[in-house]
Amino acid sequence: MSDAGTPPELRPEDYLDVDRLLSDEERAIRDAVRAWVRDRVLPEVGGWFELGTLPSRELAPELGRLGLLGMHLQGHGCAGASATAYGLACTELEAGDTGVRSLVSVQGSLAMQAIDRWGSDEQRERWLPPMAAGEVLGCFGLTEPDAGSDPGAMRTTARRAGGDWVLHGQKMWITNGSVADVAVVWARCSDDGRVRGFLVPTDAPGFSAPPITRKLSLRASVTSELVLDDVRLPDDAALPGVASLRGPLSCLDEARHGVVWGAVGAARSCFLAALEYAGTREAFGRPIAATQIQQLKLARMATQVNQATLLALHLGRMKDAGRLRPEQVSMGKLANVDAALEVARTARQVLGGNGITLGYPVMRHMSNLESVVTYEGTADVHALVIGGALTGIDAFR
């Protein structure tokens, strides 16, 4: 029999040797993002979280130089990377903080994706190159105070006024809103009832984006309302490629793919913090890592992190092959965010009282994940999407 080779060394951060399944290019992208997060984010993120701020304007050009903004798009200054490479980048960004990953995700998978897929050639040429470079920031206005899981209930309207459009309404929970240069706003047309997207310069008269404050989650992230008080736009501000909810929902599918991967990064960060702490914290004359109960917790966390990694990689490969369905992305988000939350909560217990401080990443990730589990589609909604696919019965109506 031929020699099958030497089994790989067991590494806590990659127990199942998933690294071996990646290409050289994918590993290079992952390592570059990991190094940037280590050098730029980790030394500062505790302070950002405590102060409730994120230096988005400073970080965006750096992220642009790394090729991470709209990295999965082709042309117009975008990197044209694979879905798997984008996912790996999201893992490393969220290992830093969900807020940093959200900055990249909203910029690329929502705002830039909408322009790239549904915009005109002129709109793509105007907006995508500076957005890819991080010189222009975008946000994505879909959710409203009374229309979250049911975007079809939106009240923001777009009406014709001569050759222009006039937008009126309010959006809520908008990442990047207060720092954006352009907002992709979805509104229901008053003449035919169809949903269309509009590119709204944030300096347009009648537009404002008051920040949402006093958050206990996603503190290192800019979250805002969008208020449109009869904002007048030229006809060419409308995205011409779609006039239905298919437009924003297709962008959300892209963003959710990043969330599937990002949750892995948050979970891994919590697990590794707990593993290191358990090896150094002594109780009753020995490290707590020597006790059966803590080893059980560590084993379960390691299993969940590796299962989530494999699920994300499988979905990434399916997406690159053009075979990934939205219902399968729903399973990925539901499973991986739930797993990450459980890992974070278990890690917090391992760290004891130290786990609630910003000297460790665990409570910060746990708090962020309490938002991740409900944004880009709540856990309940994704469970119903899966249930509908399994049974053929739509439980929403």
Give short descriptive properties of this protein.
Butyryl-Coa Dehydrogenase, subunit A, domain 1; Butyryl-CoA Dehydrogenase, subunit A, domain 2; two-stranded antiparallel ribbon; Butyryl-CoA Dehydrogenase, subunit A, domain 3; 3 domains; 397 residues; alpha+beta; seven-stranded mixed beta sheet
Task: Explain what you see.
This protein has about 400 residues and is an alpha+beta fold. The chain has helices at about 25-40, 45-50, 55-65, 85-95, 100-120, 120-130, 245-280, 290-320, 325-350, 360-370, 380-390, and strands spanning about 75, 80, 140, 155-160, 165-175, 180-190, 195-200, 205-210, 225-235, 280-285, 285. It folds into three domains: about 20-130, Orthogonal Bundle (Butyryl-Coa Dehydrogenase, subunit A, domain 1), CATH 1.10.540; about 140-245, Beta Barrel (Butyryl-CoA Dehydrogenase, subunit A, domain 2), CATH 2.40.110.10; about 245-390, Butyryl-CoA Dehydrogenase, subunit A, domain 3 (Up-down Bundle), CATH 1.20.140.10. Helix 7 runs antiparallel to helix 8, helix 7 runs parallel beside helix 9 and helix 9 packs antiparallel against helix 10 (about 360-370). It is globular. The mean pLDDT is about 95.
